[in-house]
């Protein structure tokens, strides 16, 4: 029964987070901002105000595919947010600019997350191979090695939290100080940003739960030995 509850949780937690962000985005993508600025204009305005003239703003395909590319120094906004004039589009654009500002300021958690990317990718790709091989072959050493790899991926998820929350805080500060949103629009903007942040919280929580479960499996095997 415990395993059923556990697996239900690791499935339902991300689904709940995704539902929240999609509902918030869908709702506020229908609400026009008082400034009437397109997402691309919001991003450009904040970038220029912070002296980031070298960072480009480009359109990308897909829904909620918005991101900042630190290697190319480009903010890519999904078509709806790039061209749209909604509260949601302004919030998303400002959030991505928040990452560009972090990059320019050498924000420590962002730098640490970038450094973790190769290790986290390695952990995500190989941890389960080692763990499953260790479980089937009853070799605790393989499980431990897999856990070490997975711990790196979990650390990446945890470091992502302050990076994302900080980017959202920067976004709110910028859209308010530049007059991109009015006082009565702050609550709606914050709802969009909070819903997006919830997906990262859910991912980190599930990752930690999985790591704890595997540690318990490993300790159980070593106790039997």
UniProtKB/TrEMBL annotation:
Pfam family, one: Zn_peptidase_2
Membrane spanning residue stretches: 128-156, 197-218
Entry GO MF terms: peptidase activity
Domain of life of the organism encoding this protein: Bacteria
Record InterPro entries: Zn_peptidase_2 (IPR007395)
Keywords recorded for this protein, A-Z: Hydrolase, Membrane, Protease, Transmembrane, Transmembrane helix
GO annotation (BP), single: proteolysis
PANTHER family per record: MEMBRANE PROTEASE YUGP-RELATED
Protein name: Zn-dependent protease
Organism encoding this protein: Bacillus solimangrovi
């Amino acid at each position: 029964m415990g395993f059923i509850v556990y697996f239900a949780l690791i499935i339902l937690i991300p689904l709940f987070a995704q539902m929240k962000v999609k509902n918030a985005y869908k709702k506020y993508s229908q609400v026009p901002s008082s400034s009437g600025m397109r997402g691309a204009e919001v991003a450009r305005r904040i970038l220029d105000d912070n002296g980031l003239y070298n960072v480009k703003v480009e359109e990308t395909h897909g829904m909620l595919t918005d991101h900042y590319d630190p290697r190319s120094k480009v903010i890519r906004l999904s078509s709806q947010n790039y061209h749209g004039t909604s509260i949601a589009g302004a919030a998303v654009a400002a959030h991505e600019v928040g990452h560009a500002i972090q990059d320019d300021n050498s924000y420590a958690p962002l730098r640490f997350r970038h450094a973790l990317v190769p290790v986290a990718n390695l952990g995500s790709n190989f941890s389960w191979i080692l763990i499953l091989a260790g479980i089937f072959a009853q070799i605790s050493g393989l499980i431990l090695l897999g856990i070490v790899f997975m711990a790196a991926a979990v650390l990446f998820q945890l470091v992502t939290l302050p990076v994302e929350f900080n980017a959202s805080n920067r976004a709110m500060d910028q859209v308010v100080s530049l007059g991109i949103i009015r006082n009565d629009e702050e609550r709606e903007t914050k709802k969009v940003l909070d819903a997006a942040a919830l997906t990262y919280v859910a991912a980190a929580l599930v990752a930690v739960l999985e790591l704890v479960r595997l540690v318990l499996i490993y300790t159980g095997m070593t106790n039997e030995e």
